[in-house]
Amino acid sequence: MTQLDIKFVRAQFPAFSEPSLQGQAFFENAGGSYTCQQVIDRLTRFYHQRKVQPYSAYEASRLGGEEMDEARTRLALMLGVDTDEVSFGPSTTQNTYVLAQAFRQWLKPGDAIVVTNQDHEANSGPWRRLADEGIEVREWTIDPETGHLDPGDLVDLLDESVRLVCFPHCSNVVGEINDVVAVTAIAHAAGAFVCVDGVSYAPHGLPNVGKLGADIYLFSAYKTYGPHQGIMVMRRELGMMLPNQGHYFNEASLYKRFTPAGPDHAQVAASAGMADYADALYSHHFSEAADETKRAEAVHDLMRAHEVKHLQPVLDYLSQKNSVRLVGPIQADSRAPTVAVELSGQAEPVAAELAPHGIMAGGGDFYAVRALEAMGIDPAKGVLRLSFVHYTSENEVSKLISVLDEVL
């Protein structure tokens, strides 16, 4: 298998040549990634040359609109869906909130939805509030020891009343990758749609949502090397069925139906830089011609292989340390490199103690309060979270383990 050229990768990110960040190893990528040069270039160009109302006939406006359309078109190809099934919003939290309002209008009293306690609150709270409208909310609960979501438990929750199942591709504290294809098949067989929170998975390679089968897939561009935007895939069958949340005259446009606020033109356009970056990785590592969807799949696999290789030593170290509790699987190939550990005391002071050693990490509940409580972890105490992505080097991982050994 082709190995990731880490030197080439890091050359695409200005942060790694920034003097103020030298000697600092970034291990809080689950909160937001560094931005690649391709995105920065597009954002800069837009603000310099295209910062006008887009889609008019004059040149700056026409070009601005074309760049926005390019972002949607290319990301849709990478995600394996139709162009108008991709929409942008100010954040995934906001996108989820708007979706919940659409379902609030569409569902009827007596209908049910399923949520999990493994999820980040942004993809749980808005759905749970539908209970105020007479919608039954059923909870698919995790194993209190491992944090695992058992698809067999979901089967027991499903009947003809369930219209929607909401779950994460992976949790931002448990890290285990849920089998979206299998869960979606179970939900669809019961007549329910699925909404997948992909925020914690997408940074490790954009998935082919078309192959996953999800009806809704949400993730955040600022965690996938891009600008601060929420990106949502809404498959056409469901999207045209739900009530329009945008301007009434835009209701025929699928990608405008769930974006009631005007989009951030510059950030939408700059999101095409995420596709530029993926293409640069593909061209550097592979010689054979391929369409954008297949290139994205190859880059996904390239990223994952690098992460799995360097995650396993971290998991081995932490799983053998009696003074901490490693949350989630101990095998790297079944999880994302988002590693949470329960300590004997408060997590935030330990994260602060890592900083002088050049380790940038975080401590807290990370809005996964329900998951922590379900596993018997006090959210007020929190967990130490160590998260990395494909641009993290072997040397940085070795440094992390060395510093942890000293601090813990």
UniProtKB/TrEMBL annotation:
<dbReference type="Pfam" id="PF00266">
    <property type="entry name" value="Aminotran_5"/>
</dbReference>
<dbReference type="InterPro" id="IPR015421">
    <property type="entry name" value="PyrdxlP-dep_Trfase_major"/>
</dbReference>
<dbReference type="GO" id="GO:0008483">
    <property type="term" value="F:transaminase activity"/>
</dbReference>
<dbReference type="InterPro" id="IPR015422">
    <property type="entry name" value="PyrdxlP-dep_Trfase_small"/>
</dbReference>
<feature type="domain" description="Aminotransferase class V">
    <location>
        <begin position="26"/>
        <end position="400"/>
    </location>
</feature>
<keyword id="KW-0808">Transferase</keyword>
<keyword id="KW-0032">Aminotransferase</keyword>
<protein>
    <submittedName>
        <fullName>Aminotransferase class V-fold PLP-dependent enzyme</fullName>
    </submittedName>
</protein>
<dbReference type="InterPro" id="IPR015424">
    <property type="entry name" value="PyrdxlP-dep_Trfase"/>
</dbReference>
<dbReference type="InterPro" id="IPR000192">
    <property type="entry name" value="Aminotrans_V_dom"/>
</dbReference>
<keyword id="KW-0663">Pyridoxal phosphate</keyword>
